[in-house]
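Review form for a predicted model. The reviewer records the input and the model, then writes brief findings.
Reviewer: anonymous (R2)
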Amino acid sequence: MKTLSAFAGFIDHINEKLGRVTAWLTLLMVLVQFAIVLSHYIFHTGSIFLQESLLYMHSMIFLAGAAYTLKHNGHVRVDVIYSRLGDKARAWINLLGSLIFLFPVLGIIGWMAWPYMMDSWQILEGSIETSGIQAVYLLKTMILLFVITMILQGVALICHSLLSICGQEKTIAEEVEHL
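Model under review:
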């Protein structure tokens, strides 16, 4: 059980770091948008490269930050029943939800995205604008990064759920009581 806990902790650590790095893109995106607005209204100039960079950053925030959000239980769910359940019942819901819903959906997304990404890499797809970002293939690769990090975090969620079901992981109530 310690190995399972260590493995889940390792995945949690990776997605925690990735999420925190990705969060800084939000600030960068705001600053780039501010620069675009300034250059447009004050200097009457524009940059397609900067405009497209907003799309790249926005995509990276959502795709690279999804596993971090899952780790922190931040995804939208119907919480009418879940919030009233005990820790073991929640663990069962997380376990079954991951196996029945999360992994199949991620499998379909990965299966559909693979040829889409590979076609883009084969031609080193770039922007349709000459002064745009000539790395659309990297943007499309983010879809697979999303799938991989979500699968890893799903595995960590399953590990935590199994540990909770077996009574090997501290419950939320025990952690609060310890503080």
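Findings: The radius of gyration is 20 Å.
Further findings: The CA atoms of residues 5 and 108 lie 28 Å apart.
Recommendation: see findings above.
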